[in-house]
Amino acid sequence: MDFASARIITGGVARLVHFYERATGAPADRSTEDFAEIRLASATLAIGSTRTVPLFAPGSARPADNHSVILEFLVDDVDAVHENLTGFVADFVSGPTTMPWGNRSLLIRDPDGNLVNFFTPVTPAAVERSAR
What we know:
Mean pLDDT: 96
CATH architecture of the largest domain: Roll
Number of strands: 8
Shape: globular
Largest sheet: 4 strands, mixed
Oligomer: single chain
């Protein structure tokens, strides 16, 4: 089995696609105005409109209501990401901070309020874990 993607349901597909294109530096593949994918080497981030929810199960997903999931992106230099997003991101939850487990992390909220963590392993143990 392979993990294929994570999907965010939103009322503003174009707004969220623009945000994640800027945050990841990767262009989105826009299938329709209701669906786009940002394909990275290790995973795909899908962004779907609230209009797609009834195709799966009416009422099964609500936009801008995430209180348990953090999207995480492994980056080469978290401080450079912070610099790039300053002035673009409205909600920095936590500036670049080295965590006890050895990752330097930047925690932000996307325009829908979803938590997004950019991290760079900085200790030898963290670098080894990320190489697996």
